[in-house]
């Protein structure tokens, strides 16, 4: 049986096209013509021996085989890029200071730090877990090189929008609301100022629903503990949500807005190690 060797450049075009939602945009980012990328996709399907994409209106969707291929493509490209960074960056020394919210501590941090450490063994990463306002202040004062944080009215000069995440009402896993109809809605929230605390109160006020602050905490861990204990409901995005908590049915609760997530850089042209860590963070966020 003839061995098949997938071309990494072809896989990169495929993965980039799916990331951007357009192979024309992928061609532009990769510095290729659209026809060249189309030829690469045709080659990839021929090697795979099955269609990887199917038409859906004016766009393209992955087939079941395409979903499998995309997962492997990302892993192969990740390993390739890690090898390049390890070989070229082995002599890099110093530190990178990263700030992020508690939401991303378990879902992003372990994998990213592991990859970064393998590629740059002499570089030290200092991680600061803090609230949004504190992260923005540290970034502005030069105490952080990177920050993964929610978008606010304060616009950082070197911010990269990643995605917009829906905020939801969060309750215990059983889905039973911890209050009776007509009672003020008990809220479990972080200490003010807090973007999601404000969003929850504004939404309830606009809907004409009574509410009360049942529990406040300085940490997300404390918030989750109170929700699990049935003290009230909270507001958060699905990112990093514990398995025994869930987004509640909004039939009796007002709809909440989306919240933007961004990667903030202290400098427009960051050092190579900072740029690489930013790249790894963006890659991991695409996979979770």
Automatic annotation (TrEMBL):
Residues 6-63 form the HTH lysR-type domain. It comes from the Bacteria. SUPFAM superfamilies: Periplasmic binding protein-like II, Winged helix' DNA-binding domain. InterPro entries: LTTR (IPR050176), LysR_HTH_N (IPR000847), LysR_subst-bd (IPR005119), WH-like_DNA-bd_sf (IPR036388), WH_DNA-bd_sf (IPR036390). The keyword Translocase does not apply. PROSITE patterns: HTH_LYSR (PS50931). Keywords: DNA-binding, Transcription, Transcription regulation. PANTHER family: HTH-TYPE TRANSCRIPTIONAL REGULATOR LRHA-RELATED, TRANSCRIPTIONAL REGULATOR. Belongs to the LysR transcriptional regulatory family. This is LysR family transcriptional regulator. It comes from Dyella flagellata. The lineage of its organism: Bacteria, Pseudomonadati, Pseudomonadota, Gammaproteobacteria, Lysobacterales.
């Amino acid at each position: 049986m003839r061995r098949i060797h997938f071309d990494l450049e072809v896989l990169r075009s495929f993965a980039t096209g799916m990331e951007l939602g357009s192979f024309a945009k992928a061609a532009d980012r990769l510095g290729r013509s659209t026809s060249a990328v189309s030829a690469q996709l045709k080659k990839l399907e021929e090697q795979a021996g099955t269609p990887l994409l199917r038409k859906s209106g004016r766009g393209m969707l992955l087939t079941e085989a395409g979903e499998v291929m995309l997962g492997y493509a990302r892993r192969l490209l990740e390993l390739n890029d890690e090898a390049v960074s390890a070989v070229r960056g082995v002599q890099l020394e110093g530190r990178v200071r990263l700030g992020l919210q508690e939401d991303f501590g378990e879902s992003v941090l372990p994998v990213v730090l592991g990859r970064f450490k393998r590629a740059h063994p002499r570089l030290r990463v200092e991680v600061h877990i803090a609230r949004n306002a504190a992260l923005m202040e540290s970034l502005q004062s030069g105490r952080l090189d990177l920050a993964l944080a929610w978008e606010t009215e304060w616009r950082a000069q070197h911010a990269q929008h990643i995605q917009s995440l829906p905020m939801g009402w969060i309750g215990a896993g059983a889905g039973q609301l911890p209050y009776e109809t007509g009672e003020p809605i008990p809220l479990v929230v972080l200490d003010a100022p807090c973007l999601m605390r404000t969003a929850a109160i504004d939404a309830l006020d606009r809907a004409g629903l009574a509410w009360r602050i049942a529990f406040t905490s300085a940490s997300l861990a404390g918030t989750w503990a109170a929700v699990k204990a049935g003290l009230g409901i909270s507001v958060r995005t699905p990112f990093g949500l514990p398995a025994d908590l869930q987004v509640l049915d909004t039939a009796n609760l007002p709809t909440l807005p989306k919240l933007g997530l961004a990667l903030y850089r202290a400098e427009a042209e960051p050092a190579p190690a900072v740029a690489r860590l930013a790249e790894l963070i963006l890659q991991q966020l695409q996979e979770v």
